[in-house]
Amino acid sequence: MAKKKTSIKDIAKALGISITTVSFILNGKAREKRISEELTKKVEAYIQQIGYKPSHLAQSLRLGKSKVIVFMVEDISNNFFASIARLIEEKAYKNGYKIIYCSTDNQPEKAKELIATFKMRNVDGFIITPTPDLESTILELLDEGLAVVLFDRWIPEIDCSYVVVENEISAFEATKHLIQQGGCKNIGFITVESNQTQMLERLKGFLKAVEGSDVEHTIFKVKFHAIAEQEASKSILEFFKSHDKLDGIFFSTNYLAFEGLQALSRLKKKIQKEIKVVSFDDHYFFNLYQPQISAIEQPLELIAEKLMESILLQLDESNQGRKFQQITLPNMLHVRQSSEISD
Amino acid sequence: MAKKKTSIKDIAKALGISITTVSFILNGKAREKRISEELTKKVEAYIQQIGYKPSHLAQSLRLGKSKVIVFMVEDISNNFFASIARLIEEKAYKNGYKIIYCSTDNQPEKAKELIATFKMRNVDGFIITPTPDLESTILELLDEGLAVVLFDRWIPEIDCSYVVVENEISAFEATKHLIQQGGCKNIGFITVESNQTQMLERLKGFLKAVEGSDVEHTIFKVKFHAIAEQEASKSILEFFKSHDKLDGIFFSTNYLAFEGLQALSRLKKKIQKEIKVVSFDDHYFFNLYQPQISAIEQPLELIAEKLMESILLQLDESNQGRKFQQITLPNMLHVRQSSEISD
DNA sequence: AATTGAAGCTAAAAGGATTTATCAAAAATA
DNA sequence: TATTTTTGATAAATCCTTTTAGCTTCAATT
Fold this sequence. Notes:
Chain A is an alpha/beta fold.
């Protein structure tokens, strides 16, 4: 088995020419390096015939570029991240890059360790949803000339590329919608206890909308351990029990909404009739659920596109000068039954 | 920026010894190669101090192993595959392997192209959900000594490792359940038009259960283009309209069920009261839906575990001889409201 | 005839590791 | 004392490319 791969050396030997010549031809430098057209054709034909492909490993070693991008997210099995993974995949392959994924679980130590292992693998770039406490590590990456793009959340202290969405504005608008179209007078905002920028921005948008009005509001932050131990539902249930005056709920992300929906159904609360609901991060099921749940959709394709555009820009050797892009994309509120006046 | 990485050469020079010695010590061969304890300690201390890590690229080139496993699935954004991705990730990293993912969309050409690109990247192994028409490509991989494990579906013609689940038995049991506990007399089986082994096995199990009884049944295969173009829901709706006598439905996979649920809700069919429902591939949402949907859960953790076990076995150099494992795991039927007698 | 220039191709270094074969000095044996 | 063994370390080949610097040969110029 395992017949050993043919190398550029074998080709040179077979044709009785030098390795250098073959390499030049392979890299399309035949003209530039004045290799005769005749020889060029002959070599190309031979390469074609035996189906030779250069070793990426050797190329990487020589060139110091591995053509690998790391996609480091909080949890690759999460629908949002998996969808982005799917979308960046094609663009990466089209540009000759491969993608290695990994999940941090939002744990700084894990993220740092992963980054360290990848660095010694000579990867070229990182697409990252940063965990807390990651500034110095990311600064190091940038310092070493690696391509970095943050997404979903970002780090205010660091000047680098990122792709995020208009969290504050969208949360503001969705809250306004709950008030104006939904007629809510007492809204609960359910979020996670964490300092992730995207969550803080959503909260900020909510507060802005609610504070300018005569609407009452309550903020509930689900404890981190509750999410980890899948007790979020119970925790949210307790919250609802002790706040039965609420006539509107804003979930800061879809997995909280899922837990919340379960809690509401257990309490026999009638969504839409008794309580309006809207969630950040649209999901297939929001359409399927009865009643359908209003939600803010992030522009996945656009995010993926911008992510790749941004990282490829940094990886592009020919391009010099400032390469950082800071992109904030608009979302789209899907108004469904859960936040409309019931008839 | 980008201060160049220190190499083993630098270490040798700094300590005034040879590269060979450093390499031996790095690889824990100091004793075997009779390097004095004194020197060994000195070198180790220095390595520790400057935080040197060997270049994986150079190692890979030299050793012909890249420590990379390809995870090639139908669609990485699919919840099932993304979950497996998440689970194998840790085990891979723990064993020094990295995982590159890619999606085939079940297209043979795409799969072949991807495999070709990865081969020239010197990856060590493949975890694959095979598309149709992939026998020869996979045989080539095996022939070249690469580690291969198929999962989800397999290729009967090829003798190699795979990890699948008891599709037929579980489908049989779930159908029996519909008949016996659900009291169904006329069951529809909704599946995709495809020859994927797992789908055929599920159908087989269904037929076996239904043919031994006096229960009527109808098979409906959603056309491939309908799924691709997101017209599955419409197509299923039509099916339901033309088969309004059905009192039970078996969905061969969860995404068909989601579409089917939408169709049923549009038809105002009361699940549980008028029609029992069960689906293959359990999903978080089945618990959340009202009524909760009965479903067959695949043992994700176990699948992931066996996948890694099986591929690591093949990658293990020390182990020789037969290395193929053919594993079939049992599923678990979660009986929920949708298939129970309504009270 | 001597010099210059271009055309066409190649030797060899570099990139960072592993490993085989070898060597010098010290210790053990005859 | 002469010979063999052991100890401790290393030079150099190898993995497969890319790329710099250089080497012929032949034609053109002075």
